Amino acid sequence: MLRQRIKAGLLAVLAATGIAAASLIPTATPAMADECTSAPAWRQGANYVTGDIVRFTDGNYYIAEHPNPGYSPTISTWFWNPHTCSGGGTPNPNPNPTGFVVSEAQFNQMFPSRNSFYTYKGLTDAISAFPAFAKTGSDTVRKQEAAAFLANVSHETGGLVHIVEQNTANYSHYCDRTQPYGCPAGQSAYYGRGPIQLSWNFNYKAAGDYLGIDLLNNPSRVQNESAVAWKTGLWYWNTQSGPGTMTGHAAMVNGSGFGQTIRSINGSLECNGGNPAQVQSRVNNYTRFAQILGVPTGSNLYC
């Protein structure tokens, strides 16, 4: 009651003096900016304390429940909890409009010296022809598959630098004239090209038939068109077991492990002691890319 009388008296004084009451009534404190807008991207190996908020690679936000040395929020759930931002909901749940689990920034981080031919857009355009690629299983499995594919691609092309096979002395070897269609583009036209170095006339024929592109007669499209090049790499990864027993895609989604993807590409040339240094190079790439994507490598890394 006393408070009401004081307030009424104050308003009467303000009215007499011509001062607007609203000018002296405290305004509401501006809403605190959404704490997620300034949240840094999660980094493996960074030290976090309780209460830290990070934006993970899946586009979601997490808050540290306990101090930790950069454990993955999607694996070490005792250390992290999903965080709903003050603005309501989880902002930007899909930060990558392409739908690919590797963002363009992560792609550039993986391949800092890549040839401009190997564009991110070329890759994402090519992925549309393979709807199961990096879209099968859990978020972790999807990222592991993307990391595995790109790790092998990196090894095959020197970090996405080389578009064509560097040893020109091999060029004339890739024509199998026992095939009924022969080598219409020429004896030396079917050398290695693209991210998994498509070679041999029968592989150009098979990839072209699958993709609806006449690569048997026009093999140069693989070195001239980024999306076509990426499609041939994805064709091999998703449909061919090569000297192995399963495709690269199958190896990653059924839990067989990264080592089996190496076997499907180069078989005993590298596996079973064939060339351990080459195997290690692929494993090193995969480990680094998995770290960039914030996922564990899984087991069975070697073949």
UniProtKB/TrEMBL annotation:
Pfam families: Glyco_hydro_19 (PF00182)
Catalytic residues, chain numbering: 156
Single GO BP term: cell wall macromolecule catabolic process
GO molecular function list: chitinase activity
Keyword Ribosomal protein attached: no
CDD domains xref list: chitinase_GH19 (cd00325)
Disulfide bonds: 175-183, 271-303
Keywords: Disulfide bond, Plant defense, Signal
InterPro entries: Glyco_hydro_19 (IPR016283), Glyco_hydro_19_cat (IPR000726), Lysozyme-like_dom_sf (IPR023346)
Signal peptide: 1-33
Glycoside hydrolase family 19 catalytic domain mapped to chain residues: 102-303
Entries under PANTHER family matching the protein: CHITINASE 12, CHITINASE-RELATED
Protein name listed in UniProt: Chitinase
Protein's organism: Streptomyces jumonjinensis
